[in-house]
Amino acid sequence: MFELADIPLPFEYIDVGIRRDYLLKERDKAYKAEATVDCNNGCRACGANMIGRCEQF
Questions:
Q1: What is the pLDDT of residue 19?
Q2: Contact at 8 Å (CB) between 24 and 5?
Q3: I need a labelling partner for 14 at 20 to 30 A (CA). Which of 23, 35, 51, 53 fits?
Q4: pLDDT tops 90 at residue 57
């Protein structure tokens, strides 16, 4: 049996700087109808800051 987290995400082959573990966490939150606050009030540690795509850094 496989876990849902083992299945590649549809857009995973495109590197936009967002870490896979962050995307999986966000997917789980979406299934629970939970929202994530935007980055205007602080970094959410998605990984975009590591490649210069985050406005916070």
A1: 86
A2: yes
A3: 35
A4: no
Looking at residue 33, its pLDDT comes to 96
Task: Report the run of H or E that residue 28 belongs to, with start and end.
Answer: helix 20-31
Are 36 and 30 in contact, with CB atoms under 8 Å apart? Answer: no
Cβ pair 18, 51 in contact under 8 A:
no
pLDDT value, residue 56: 54
Are 46 and 18 within 8 A, CB to CB? yes
pLDDT value of residue 41: 77
Residue of 28, 33, 26, 22 lying closest to 3 (CA atoms): 28
Rounded CA separation 9/42 (Å): 26
